[in-house]
């Protein structure tokens, strides 16, 4: 019977996960197109939307007793000092403020509400995910003007077994999915800035391990 060390087992699991995800994308890791030059740094018109796990501060001007800080529950709702089960997920802070004003107008005259978001999580469709052989695979909220290089800095680069130039980007738009090749080794090891590109909300980066 073969017995693997903890590090070897971890490598097998990571490589297997990346292979499964690549398989689900319907392509092999060697023949993906690159993001076109015209699209490489196109930035989306992006507004942050609230998601489960976000902390929101609610200020009701002139009514300090109604001001509060709450965390958006896993069901996407919040409970305030006046209202239970108010939907917050998938709304901008301005949209949520206007919704609270509408609800509070039943109790106080001409409420003025400001919502400030802390502890950013956002909704899953707006998160950036890294799977496979990054130094610290993770998910994080998309930030406006975020690039692939920014993402690599956030995860601490590649681990020692990564095959960075066979990494792929999975991107969904209007229900369609596209897969593109990435050149992470060229970007991080060779300083080839042409391998950098703008990210978009919901992007998934899959980094396989090299076969030795």
CATH topology of the largest domain, which one?
A: Outer membrane lipoprotein wza fold like
**CATH architecture term of the largest domain:** Roll
> What is the 3D form?
elongated
Task: Tell me the distance between the termini.
Answer: 22 Å
Portion in strands? 15-25%
Mean pLDDT: 87
Q: Any idea of the CATH class of the largest domain? A: Alpha Beta
CATH superfamily membership of the largest domain: Outer membrane lipoprotein wza domain like
User: What is the count of β-strands?
Assistant: 10
Cα gyration radius (Å)? 21 Å
Which spans have pLDDT < 50 for at least 5 consecutive residues? Answer: 1-29
Secondary-structure element string: HEEEEHEEEHEEHE
Main sheet: which strands, in order across?
Answer: 7-6-10-8-9
Largest sheet, strands/sense/barrel? 5 strands, mixed
What share of residues is helical? 10-25%
- Number of H/I helices: 4
Total of domains: 2
Molecular structure report:
The chain has 212 residues and is an alpha+beta fold. The protein has two domains: 6-45 and 124-207, Outer membrane lipoprotein wza fold like (Roll); 55-118, wza like fold. Helices cover 20% and strands 21% of the residues. The chain has four helices and ten strands, in the order αββββαβββαββαβ. The protein has helices at residues 6-24, 93-104, 148-154, 184-188, and strands spanning 55-60, 68-71, 77-78, 86-87, 113-118, 127-132, 139-141, 168-173, 176-181, 204-207. The strands form three sheets. Strands 7-6-10-8-9 form a five-stranded mixed sheet. It has a three-stranded antiparallel sheet with strand order 2-1-5, covered by helices on one side. The protein has a two-stranded antiparallel sheet with strand order 3-4. A hairpin with a 7-residue loop joins strand 1 (55-60) and strand 2 (68-71). The longest helix is centred in the N-terminal third of the chain and has 19 residues, at 6-24. The chain is elongated. It is a multi-pass membrane protein. InterPro entries: PEP-CTERM_polysacc_export (IPR017477), Poly_export (IPR049712), Poly_export_N (IPR003715), SLBB_dom (IPR054765). GO terms for molecular function: polysaccharide transmembrane transporter activity; porin activity. One of its GO terms (biological process) is monoatomic ion transport. Residues 128-207 form the SLBB domain.
């Amino acid at each position: 019977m073969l017995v693997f060390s903890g590090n070897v087992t971890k490598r097998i699991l990571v490589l297997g996960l990346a292979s499964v995800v690549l398989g689900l994308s319907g392509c092999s890791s060697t023949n993906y197109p690159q993001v076109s030059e015209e699209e490489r740094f196109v930035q989306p018109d992006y507004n942050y939307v609230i998601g489960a796990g976000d902390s929101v501060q609610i200020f009701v001007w002139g009514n300090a007793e109604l001001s509060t800080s709450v965390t958006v529950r896993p069901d996407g709702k919040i409970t305030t000092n006046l209202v239970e089960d108010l939907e917050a997920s998938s709304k901008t802070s301005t949209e949520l403020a206007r919704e609270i004003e509408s609800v509070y107008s039943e109790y106080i005259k001409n409420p003025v509400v400001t919502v400030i978001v802390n502890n950013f999580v956002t909704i899953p469709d707006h998160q950036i995910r890294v799977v496979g052989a990054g130094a610290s695979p993770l998910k994080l909220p998309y930030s406006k003007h975020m690039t692939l290089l920014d993402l690599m800095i956030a995860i601490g680069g590649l681990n020692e077994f990564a095959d960075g130039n066979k990494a792929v980007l999975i991107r969904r738009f209007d229900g369609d999915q596209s897969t593109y090749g990435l050149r992470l080794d060229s970007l991080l090891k060779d300083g080839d800035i042409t391998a950098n590109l703008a990210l978009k909300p919901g992007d998934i980066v899959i980094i396989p391990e090299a076969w030795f």
